[in-house]
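Hello,

Our lab assistant flagged a job as stuck in the queue for most of the afternoon. It eventually completed. Since we weren't sure the result was trustworthy after the delay, we are filing this so someone can double-check. Below is the sequence as submitted and the structure that was eventually returned. Let us know if re-running is recommended.
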Amino acid sequence: MEVIIKPWHGIPREKIKWHPTVDESKCVGCGMCVTGCGRKVYGFDYEKKKPVVLRPNNCMVACVTCANTCLRDAISFPPVENVREMIRKEKLLGRTMEELKERMEELKA
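-- returned structure --
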């Protein structure tokens, strides 16, 4: 299954600095992050027995599920305030309301 990366509210995903970082000194190599990520952000280095961030732009903006499920707090992300600042700077709330309106119309059809 290939993950198709679309712009995030009109912003090309490669312009958004949001992806996990793995602290190898804390990581026990359980693979929970690899198997739990539906967007295939991670691979696994079987020699080191550690996850590797292979496709950082596949990461859903503002998602921290892998960090929340990591039993050793080995996964970190940039501050969420960076995303909130981008939302304000790019005036995304207006765009979001339009997207919401379109989705509601699709559901009615």
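-- support follow-up --
The delay was a queue issue, not a problem with the job. The result is valid. The domain at 13-108 is CATH 3.30.70.20 (Alpha-Beta Plaits). Residues 26 and 72 are 6 Å apart (CA to CA).
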